[in-house]
Amino acid sequence: MKRSILFVLVIVLINTSSWGQSASPKPSRFKSFQTHVASKAIYPLIKSSRYSGVVPVPNVDELPDPNMQYKLLMDVSTGMKDSASANEINDGLAEVARAINTHIAAGVPKNKIDVIVVVHGGAMKAFYTNAVYKSQYHVDNPNMALFDELLALPVKFVACGQSISFQNITKGQLVPWMKIALSAQIPISTYQLKGFVYKKVETE
User: Fold this and answer.
1) Which residue did the predictor score with more confidence, 114 or 25?
2) For residue 176, cis peptide bond before it (omega within 30 degrees of 0)
3) What is the pLDDT of residues 168-181, one digit of tens each?
4) Domains plus CATH for the chain?
5) What was the pLDDT predicted at 167?
6) Nearest alpha-carbon partner for 123 in 164, 83, 171
7) 130: how many CB neighbours lie within 10 A of its CB?
């Protein structure tokens, strides 16, 4: 009987501990970047996202070929973690900008970089027009300055039509330069067949 009671108490303690751990939000690596190395970072092209900097590294051995065309296919689905993050640049877009900055910092000319960004899932809401974003979250869309810099490269953005349908978003609610595909899977397969290197953007 005593052993049974002790066993139950141990299980309760383990579960309580795990609940406490899951309740604590895991800091994103962007927050870690800002805390530990932001003062050392440079922003060779995209400057509006503080989490898109590049830390200089001395004595680099593996260098890019500045004569190659770097074709990057970025898969972005990261949405807002909470209401407070409505004031911040989307983490997935910050990572797209950082990928571009790292190539520029390594010596790749910007006219040798082609970027396609496929957007789906929670990331769709970052592409609301400023008016729609403000009506939803009561702040201006914080991604607008970053959009301007990315479009100037130029970066092409393609939205998943399935995500738009599932979330009851209309094309009119999105920024006017966003392209629409039937599904994210279409541009993901199409551009890989065209020689683009696929990267699933991870922000944790």
Assistant:
1) 114
2) no
3) 999 999 999 999 99
4) 2-56+67-200 (3.40.1260.10)
5) 96
6) 164
7) 14
